[in-house]
TrEMBL record:
Residues 1-77 are annotated as: Disordered. It comes from the Eukaryota. GO terms for biological process: protein transport. It comes from Lichtheimia ornata. Residues 286-423 form the Arrestin C-terminal-like domain. This is Arrestin-like N-terminal domain-containing protein. PANTHER family: ARRESTIN DOMAIN CONTAINING PROTEIN, ARRESTIN DOMAIN-CONTAINING PROTEIN 1. Residues 112-247 form the Arrestin-like N-terminal domain.
Length: 527
């Protein structure tokens, strides 16, 4: 099992092999969201020379051939963009100094990931994601292989009060479900079940390893971080395995946003009706709202006709405000029942103008509500095992009653709205859209493939014979039924769940969480 080494939140370094078995391993750096890059990573772009380093246009070392991530036994050397240390020593002229040579070498060993498209990469179904793993070696190191991993996980964490008497206290329960995990060797030797793996020495310099991944035509839940304790993340990591099963180095986690492809429903006019109650006993007004669609997409106009009528002669509608709200709900089964958390985010907050020259003196209102659905903070409505995201348009109506002594009542109602991310007329424009599967039914897993190809090999290429015919003479005893890695694309995803329990006192992020609401005796995972 590889270990993680880091000296700072933004760097990953090597350590001495002689002490690797006894030294304690520090915690990894904080995860980085690719759409919110940290300033400390802006200087690690492979297309731009670092401060004090030689430009990438310098000639290559004579014994370091150019290569990418061709998946052969040992793998050819990666793109080595700095000459070896001894060649630098021979290139010092009489006016230079050895200190200037040292400034051109990496200050410390780091392992990072860069994506094509920069920090705005978004993972979608049936799409290819490309990038490169960058290794800057500050001192010679022994490496068995260099790998990249991509996984998706859903995390549910709640704080509940349990126990009785002296043992009663707050506990944190957490369930982490990994939807899939894909692994790809960029360089080095393949892991084998029947043989130990040799290792190679990597010289000081700058190395780049291109990669490509094809996401299956499957809709997974979109990325999210609400409510507190609940998250769905799509995470990339790079790892260099050390020699003889010793610890190597590992990059920080790179979190990329994922967006499923969900088409809105056909346009269909419908009417929302509601009787508003005062103190849940007395009817005070009637509401009728006509909407022209049931589902909307970001950046689309929303329009509805709102009609309201009071049911009392002395009642007058004084003010109307509305909120377009996003509901994040999370739940998890615990020993007592179902722990429930909710977070409501107001995306739009505005008012409905009431003309002062209303001929009905405020007893009736007929106004049009118009706004554009925002693109920020608006993701598709969805349901997963632990989370649910849905939307509603909440109206707060202020009604005044009485003549001399007025009594003010505020009542509310909410109109359900469902959010997609593509209009319905795109149904036939997107290839293979109608054959998208749900992640609970599909066993397809994202696959890495040779980055020199446009697409991964088709599954039909994997059905060929793995060895020579059995009637050959002499018998082919040493034929191994193993395909090259670029053809091992038919792997099924394996979902797994890990449950963790710990006392809330002193736990990480415990102060940010408030106790969940417990629905006693309810053990139903369906929403």
């Amino acid at each position: 099992m590889a270990s993680i080494l880091s000296t700072a939140a933004q760097h990953v370094t090597t350590r001495h092999r002689s002490s690797s078995s006894a030294a304690s391993l520090p915690r990894p750096g904080e995860p980085q969201h690719t759409n919110h890059p940290s300033p400390s990573h802006t200087h690690h772009h492979g297309n731009r020379p670092r401060s004090g380093s030689r430009p990438q246009s310098r000639p290559q070392s004579q014994h370091s051939p150019l290569s990418t991530s061709a998946p052969i036994a040992n793998g050819p050397a990666p793109i080595h963009q700095l000459e070896q240390h001894q060649n630098f020593n021979h290139s010092v002229d009489t006016l230079g100094s050895s200190s200037s040579i040292d400034s051109q070498l990496p200050a410390e060993t780091t392992l990072t990931i860069e994506f094509d498209g920069g920090t705005h990469v978004i993972v979608r179904p049936n799409r290819v994601v490309r990038g490169k793993v960058i290794l800057d070696v500050a001192e010679r190191m022994l490496v068995t292989r260099i790998r990249i991993k991509f996984r998706a996980e859903e995390s549910a964490m709640v704080k509940v009060e349990e126990g009785g008497g002296d043992t009663r206290g707050e506990w944190i329960h957490q369930a982490i479900t990994t939807f899939f995990e894909s692994d790809w060797k960029l360089w080095g030797n393949e892991a084998s079940y029947y043989s130990q793996c040799p290792w190679e020495e990597m010289d000081i310099g700058h190395y780049e390893f291109p990669f490509a991944l094809k996401f299956p035509n499957v809709n997974y839940p979109p990325s999210m971080e609400d409510p507190a304790g609940f998250a769905i993340r799509y995470v990339w990591t790079a790892q260099a395995d050390g020699p003889a099963l010793q610890s190597g180095i590992k990059s920080r986690e790179y979190i990329t946003p994922y967006r499923p492809i969900i088409i809105s429903t056909p346009d269909k006019e419908w009417t929302y009706r509601k009787t508003l109650m005062k103190d849940k006993k007395h009817a005070i007004a009637e509401v009728q709202a006509k909407l022209y669609k049931q589902s909307y997409c970001p950046d689309e106009p929303f329009e509805m006709q709102l009609n309201m009528t009071t049911l009392h002669a002395d009642a007058k509608i004084a003010a109307i405000e509305y909120k377009f709200r996003k509901h994040h709900e999370g739940k998890m089964l615990v020993q007592q029942g179902t722990a429930f958390r909710e977070h409501i985010r107001t995306v739009i907050h505005s008012t409905v103008p009431i003309p002062s020259s209303n001929t009905h003196h405020g007893t009736q209102v007929a106004e049009t509500v118009i706004f554009d659905v925002p693109t920020r903070l608006v993701s598709p409505s969805f349901i997963s095992r632990h989370t649910r995201v849905h939307y509603g348009l909440q109206f707060l109506v202020t009604i005044e009653q009485g003549h001399l002594f007025k009594n003010t009542t505020v009542v509310d109602f909410s109109i359900p709205i469902i959010i997609a991310n593509l209009p319905h007329d795109n149904l036939l424009r997107i290839p293979d859209l109608t054959v998208i599967q749900g992640y609970r039914e599909s066993k397809e897993c994202p696959v890495f493939f040779d980055p020199s190809l446009d697409e991964p090999p088709s599954p039909s290429m994997n059905n060929g014979p793995l060895s020579t015919p059995m009637n050959e003479e002499p018998p082919n005893y040493y034929t191994l039924p193993i395909q090259p890695p670029q053809f091992q694309l038919g792997k099924e995803r394996k979902e797994r769940t890990v449950f963790l329990t710990r006392p809330a006192k002193g736990a990480l992020h415990s102060q940010e969480m408030y106790p969940a609401v417990i629905i006693q005796g309810l053990f139903d995972e369906d929403w």
